[in-house]
Amino acid sequence: MSYLLSKSRKDHPEKNGEVQKITPKTANWEYVGFEMYHLQEEQELTFDTENTETCFVLVAGKATIVTSQATFEHIGNRASPFERIPPYSVYVPHQQKVQIKAESYLELAVCRAPSQGSLPIRLIKPEDVGVEKRGYGNNKRLVHNILPETETADALLVVEVFTDEGNTSSFPSHKHDNKNSLTETYLEETYYHRFSPSQGFALQRVYTDDRSLDECMAVYDGDVVQVPKGYHPVATIAGYDNYYLNVMAGPVRKWRFTWEQDHSWINTEKYADKFK
């Protein structure tokens, strides 16, 4: 199994509901942290943001979230991410205690990046989330921009993507791993995958131009792929729709990337004209 693949522990969660935990230390990088909790109705979780800004995303289910500055009661609007409507999220800066009470079965994503800033705690409502469609033909996907660079944060970028069966996503292949470029930013990234029906899988490849990194993974429901560098396309399998939640962070909070030259032609009108 690839060292970039973190298998879900949803069949054997921790007592606090934790089924995934990626930290800069475990990932051997600097910025991105990601946790996933599966909470039963009435279960409570106390969370410390410590030295990170944190975006809590209600992937599925409802909850009340209590912070030092505000209480967000009865939030959550979907039983499954495959309803394809934008979720509720809560942004919390560093050094904050957060109490979460599940009001139904709850899938809670905790997206983190190092921060010493003191931006205000805020609720990100579904109507605050930018929705866009990208791509053509078998490269189409639906995107929900939960915490894009146009919205206030210190380092975090959070987005969710829906890809229909048999389609590719995060394609044409692109990378964002250069700290010394005027046209590209360094962003570490995690992919939290879900599938409908849940027994499905996808293939995700992570590779560099010189192939010093070249990993291809079969990704199942609840798994996380870590992208420290390189290109990272996803290919779905017939019969199974794919959802993934991306967390990105780096020294510069901008999503600037480089297309892999061999496949960049798929962005051109020549390719798009096939589907008009």
Automatic annotation (TrEMBL):
Pfam families: KduI. Keywords: Isomerase. Its EC number is 5.3.1.30. SUPFAM superfamilies: RmlC-like cupins. InterPro entries: Deoxy-glucuronate_isom_IolB, KduI/IolB_isomerase, RmlC-like_jellyroll, RmlC_Cupin_sf. NCBIfam families: myo_inos_iolB (TIGR04378). This is 5-deoxy-glucuronate isomerase. The lineage of its organism: Bacteria, Pseudomonadati, Pseudomonadota, Gammaproteobacteria, Pasteurellales. The gene is iolB.
